[in-house]
Design brief:
Elements: H1 2-14, E1 19-35, E2 38-56, E3 59-65, H2 70-85, H3 111-114, H4 117-134, E4 138-157, E5 162-180, E6 183-193, H5 201-213, E7 224-230, H6 232-244, H7 248-252, E8 272-276, E9 297-302, E10 305-306, H8 313-319, E11 327-328, E12 337-338, E13 343-346, H9 352-357, E14 361-369, H10 371-374, E15 381-392, E16 395-408, H11 409-414, E17 416-419, E18 424-426, E19 431-433, E20 436-444
Parallel strand pairs: 7-14, 13-19
Antiparallel strand pairs: 1-2, 1-4, 2-3, 4-5, 5-6, 7-20, 8-9, 8-13, 9-10, 11-12, 14-15, 15-16, 16-20, 17-20, 18-19
C-alpha cells in the first residue's frame, strides 16, 4: 500500500503540487445474523482505496478512489489538483506537519483474524439461545448478531508524515421482544472486544432479555422533580451528544454552549471527562489520528471545571494551538474532522445498590428516545422521552414509559451527584461510562 501512496505523491508533485497528503485503507468486515438458531445472513466485505488532499495557497482539493490501477491514480491526482484550483482559500488550511512519535498503542489482536466462521456463528447462536432461555416472556429475538472489522490504515505526505497501523474490533448484539398480556417491550445489549474470546455471548443475550422484561407493565408515573439514574447506555448517548459541543469546530462556529467558558465550573465536582485515544481497550484507540498526529489524552472536564476542547490541525491553527490528535476520518473517502476518540466518564464510583437504597424516589432511565434530536448542544436545552423503572423508598418498583425528561445540559452536569460501579464500553461513539446519578430532574408524566 505504501508503494501506491508514494506513487500518488509522485504524480501530484509532477503536476506541480508541493503539499500533498495521501490516506490509504484496506479492511475486511463480517456480519452474521441468526434467527431461530439458523443462519439468516452471513456477509463479508472487503474495502480498499486511497484519498488524496492537495494544498495550494490555503485552498485544498480532495479526491478518492477504490480503483488502484495506474490510469485511475492518474485521474485521481488530476481531480484533486483541479479541485484545489477552484476551491476558496482559507488562511488556516494547511498540510499537517509531523508532531512527534505515534502513541504506543496496538489496537489489534491476531486472534480476530484466526477465528473461523463456525466460531463466529456460534457466538450469534449463543446470544439468541441465552436471550430465549432467560425468561419465558421473551418470545422473539429480533436481532442476534456477530459483527467484526479488521483493517489497516496508511498515511504519507510531502511534509514527512508517514505511518500505518492495524486495528480490529468485534461485537455481539441482541435485540429482543418480550410479551405479557398483549403488551410488547423491547430490550437490547452489546458486548465488545478485540477478539471473540473477549465476548460473553450468554451475558449479552440475558441482559437484553432483562432490559425488555423489566419494562413489562410499564405506564406513566406522576410528574415530579426527582433524581434520575442514567444507565450506561443512556449515559453514553447523552455524553456523545455533549461531546460535539466540546470540539473546537463547534466553539469556533459559535455552535457550542461551552464557548468562552474554559476554566469555569460547568459540572458537579466529581465529574472527570477525558478524551483518550491511547487506552489499550478503547474501541477507537490508535497510534495516530486521520492526519498522522499522535493520539493522546485530553482532559475536557476535571473536578467539574471545563479544561479545554478537542482540536484537529485546522481548528488548532485557527486557535493558535496544537492539534490534540482528534482529526478523525470515516475512511479513505472522507476528509478529517474533529471529534472524540474514546470518551471516558470517570470519578469516584459508588455501588449501584447503595445509590438506589439511598433514594426516596427517582427513576432509573434505561432508554431515551430522541436524545440526539431532543438535546441541543448550542442552547443546552433538551426534552426526551424515556423508559425505565421507578425507585421508591430505596427499591425498584413499577416500570415507566411515555414519560419525558427535560432540562438543560449545564444544569444536568451540575446536578451529577454520583457515578455507579458499572462502567463499560458502549459502541456507536466509543464511550466508557458508568451509570450517572443526576439530582433535580424534571420528569413529566401524569
Amino acid at each position: 500500500m505504501f508503494e501506491i501512496l508514494d506513487a500518488v505523491l509522485e504524480r501530484a508533485q509532477a503536476l506541480g503540487a508541493a503539499d500533498v497528503e495521501v490516506f490509504g485503507e484496506r479492511s475486511t468486515s463480517r456480519r452474521i445474523k441468526v434467527y431461530r438458531q439458523e443462519v439468516e445472513q452471513l456477509t463479508a466485505a472487503q474495502r480498499r482505496g486511497v484519498g488524496v488532499r492537495v494544498f495550494s495557497g490555503g485552498a485544498v482539493g480532495h479526491a478518492y478512489t477504490s480503483d488502484l490501477s495506474d490510469g485511475a491514480l492518474d485521474a485521481l491526482v488530476r481531480q484533486a489538483v483541479d479541485n484545489a484550483a477552484v476551491s476558496d482559500p482559507d488562511e488556516f488550511m494547511a498540510l499537517p506537519r509531523p508532531q512527534g512519535e505515534p502513541a504506543d498503542v496496538h489496537p489489534y489482536d491476531a486472534r480476530l483474524a484466526d477465528a473461523t466462521d463456525e466460531q463466529r456463528i456460534a457466538v450469534a447462536l449463543e446470544v439468541e439461545a441465552a436471550a430465549l432461555a432467560a425468561d419465558p416472556r421473551v418470545k422473539t429475538v429480533e436481532d442476534s448478531m456477530y459483527v467484526d472489522a479488521d483493517g489497516d490504515v496508511f498515511i504519507a505526505s510531502t511534509a514527512g508524515v508517514r505511518g500505518s497501523f492495524r486495528a480490529g474490533q468485534c461485537y455481539a448484539f441482541a435485540y429482543v421482544l418480550a410479551e405479557e398480556e398483549d403488551q410488547v417491550e423491547t430490550g437490547y445489549s452489546y458486548g465488545v472486544g478485540r477478539a471473540l474470546e473477549d465476548l460473553d455471548a450468554a451475558s449479552v443475550g440475558s441482559e437484553a432479555a432483562t432490559r425488555a422484561t423489566r419494562l413489562l407493565g410499564a405506564r406513566k408515573c406522576p410528574s415530579m422533580k426527582a433524581p434520575v439514574i442514567l444507565d450506561p447506555f443512556v449515559s453514553a448517548a447523552f455524553f456523545g451528544v455533549l461531546s460535539s459541543a466540546l470540539t473546537a469546530d463547534a466553539v469556533q462556529k459559535n455552535r457550542s454552549l461551552f464557548a468562552g467558558r474554559e476554566g469555569e465550573r460547568v459540572a458537579g465536582d466529581l465529574l472527570e471527562l477525558v478524551d483518550d485515544g491511547t487506552l489499550p481497550d478503547g474501541l477507537d484507540s490508535a497510534p495516530f489520528d486521520g492526519e498522522g498526529i499522535p493520539s493522546g489524552r485530553t482532559p475536557l472536564i476535571s473536578g467539574g471545571v471545563l479544561q479545554g476542547f478537542l482540536y484537529d490541525t485546522y481548528t488548532a491553527r485557527k486557535a493558535g494551538r496544537a492539534s490534540t490528535g482528534n482529526g478523525m476520518r470515516g475512511g479513505y473517502s472522507s476528509l478529517p474532522g474533529v471529534r472524540p476518540s474514546n470518551l471516558v466518564v470517570a470519578g469516584p464510583a459508588t455501588p449501584l445498590d447503595e445509590i438506589v437504597a439511598g433514594m426516596e424516589q427517582g427513576v432509573l432511565v434505561t432508554d431515551a428516545v430522541g436524545i440526539h434530536s431532543g438535546a441541543n448542544p448550542i442552547s443546552g436545552e433538551f426534552s426526551v422521552g424515556i423508559s425505565g423503572v421507578r425507585i421508591e423508598n430505596g427499591s425498584f418498583t413499577t416500570p415507566v414509559r411515555e414519560v419525558t425528561l427535560a432540562g438543560d445540559i449545564v444544569g444536568m452536569l451540575m446536578g451529577i451527584r454520583a457515578l455507579g460501579d458499572d462502567a463499560r464500553w458502549v459502541p456507536g461513539g466509543s464511550v466508557f461510562t458508568p451509570s450517572v446519578v443526576i439530582e433535580g430532574m424534571s420528569i413529566g408524566g401524569t
